[in-house]
Amino acid sequence: MSANPTKILVVDDEPQIRRLLRTSLVPQKFEIAEASTAAAALKLLAADAFDLVILDLGLPDRSGIEVISEIRAMSQVPIIVLSVRNDEAGKVKALELGADDYITKPFGMAELVMRIRVALRHRYQAQGTLPVLRAGDLEIDLVNRKVSRGGTEIKLSPTEYDIVRLLAEHAGKILTHDYILRRVWGDDKADDVQYLRVYVRAIRKKLGDRIGENEIIRTEMGIGYRLLIGEP
Amino acid sequence: MTVPDAELGKGASAPDPAAGDAPHRVGSSAYLFSTLMVVVATGISFAIQQIVTLPNLSLVFLTAVLFSALRYGLWPSIYVSLLSVAVYNFFFLPPIHTFTIADPANVLSLVFFLVVALIVSNLTAQKQRQAERVAARARLTADLYGFSRKIAGIGSLEDLLWVVTYQIAAMLKCDVVLLLPEGGGLQVRAGYPPEDSLDAADMAAASWTWKQNRPSGRGADTLPGGRRLFLPLNTQGGPVGVVGIQRAEPPIGDERRLLDALADQAAVAIERARLADAVDRVRLQAETERLRNALLTSISHDLRTPLASIIGGLSSLKSYGETYDAQTRSDLITTAHDEAERLNRFVGNLLDMTRLEAGAIQPRLEPTDVGEVIGVALGRARPLLRQRETEIDLPDDLPMANADFVLLEQVFFNLLDNAAKYTPSGSRIRIVGRADGADLTVAVIDEGTGIPDEAAEAIFDKFTRLEAGDRKRAGTGLGLAICRGFVQAMGGTVAVGNRLDRSGAVFTVRLPAAGAARREPETTDKGIVHVG
After folding, report:
1. Nearest CA-CA distance, residue B356 and chain A, Å
2. β-strands A224-227, A52-56: how paired?
3. What is the pLDDT of residues B82-106, one digit of tens each?
4. How many CB atoms lie within 10 A of CB B5?
5. Which of A14-18, B122-126, B291-295 has the lowest mean pLDDT?
6. Which residues of chain B are at the A interface, by a Cβ-Cβ cutoff of 8 Å?
């Protein structure tokens, strides 16, 4: 890490935001490059290798959504989108086009750093090879299809297990309703968010999950679910 | 716009020209019938001349004169009188079948007959004219009463102008235009049949009427060559407009009097409507002014207070940071952070309010798990509820609500925010959900001071704050207004009441349940079913 610090490209037209991110992230051992326009960002990305991109959706020259597509056409670099309140549709769109996560302005720095770490880890982790997944006090035995929380085994139906496992595989990362539905049920159920809600409610009950107290499955309003991996 | 219904048209009983003008112009049929009456009288006289004396036969003819006067008025009855004299002389006074009279006494009686007949004709016709005038006046009064009744209940000026125009048109069977002053000139505001503008000549006549406050145009002394007759609409406060009518025959006599009376009533009604409009405008202006002031007060207070804390705290740290101990630094930072969060909420509320008022809220209604929504709201409100206990009471079989998750979350967040503001620390906030027929209700019950009954509605208005000022950290005055706006956008209601023992307020959100969309997950290994 010390030899090869993680390089993050910050794309935002607001100088205060870039300054805030630089000031806050450099002490966390990240190397920061900045771009204030989509054109400058794409140019930097083409010239240099980055480990992660923090991308504001409201850029002056082009829509951030377009920039995501452009980046994905050339690289699989993790993208965290900076978004605003009341723009669930924009966030979902960004995630569908390949953004890894989003964070809503104004945001807490601890939360952003955690999102960055989650995105980096998933990008470099070989997927599905570990026999046991852990997230917080939740433990998932992939071989025996068993779930326990705080050492207590929890009986889940096969579908419930599939949902929990999917969330745990992407622990800390936002998964859209659409993504979960397609992965667990297949394409024909993709629109039935309702179906998913009912299952999540049942899973929460079994996990003894109380939102605001000891929640482990977080509802991201209008977007999807996220398995929490510790204090945000 | 009030469309005049069939009933309106019924009142338009224009005076029948034939009846109204009977005393003045008589058709030839009157003389025909009068002649017939004389023939009948002659027949009767022939029939009874054997049993009554000759002079008394004249009474039969007098009867004919009387009938004619009653039915047809003066001139036909004079005609009958003269005809009767001739016939009586010719057929009955000796020598018969000549117009000569042998007996001088009969000459005298014939002269008296004529005098009596003429007097009777005159008196009867006069009486008859009087009766007709009374009837016409009664009709006029009834028409006016009907007219005033129809325009009495109309509040808006536009509707009033339309009904006035339509009524005058129907009652006088004419085309009507109404002009009101606008921007220095006159403007056509209503017409029946619909009319947008007048030609130059008519416009000149209308303007003359407006300026001179006197009638003009066809049937008036001034500009009689025009197509229309224009009358000023006068009130005690001065003229309010001009009415113009167009008909083949300009109204005269009773019709003209009716038109004048209608114009007077219309003028009064128009003035009344204008005054009402003006009062409304003033009230609206005052309300706008009040809201603007409240907004400014609210914004300056709610923006400045947290900013003061943030700037104060941060500048202290910047200048004297190294002299503070760790605890002080942490306190300053926490305060600044909390206040920044508060500012963020306030800005969010302002944005929500703006979206609501711009009509930009389009709820995505779908079956929504209220428990999940409340959970998210509680999670977000947790920092605000630090010294409050929360208790959630939702039955397992609570139906899903047909709601927008994001909007509903904001509703509960604002209710929790409100509860946190107006309750003492250490108190408890309960959230109770219940199914209620095709709806479900969620009550947020606190242990604060409750809401005075008279404030139960006002509390949902913008910028209404109970206990505002310095007594308590007041809210933005937007939170509950947003609650109501969002809930209503989702087809629900939100109301406030007090706990029965007055130990706190109860905010109840009522939403339609999404009955059809409920599904049950598959049975688990243990056979336990968790119903959504």
Report:
1. 13
2. unpaired
3. 888 888 888 888 888 888 888 888 8
4. 8
5. B291-295
6. 340, 344, 348, 351, 355, 364, 366-369, 371-372, 375-376, 378-379, 382, 390, 400, 405-406, 409, 517-526, 530, 532
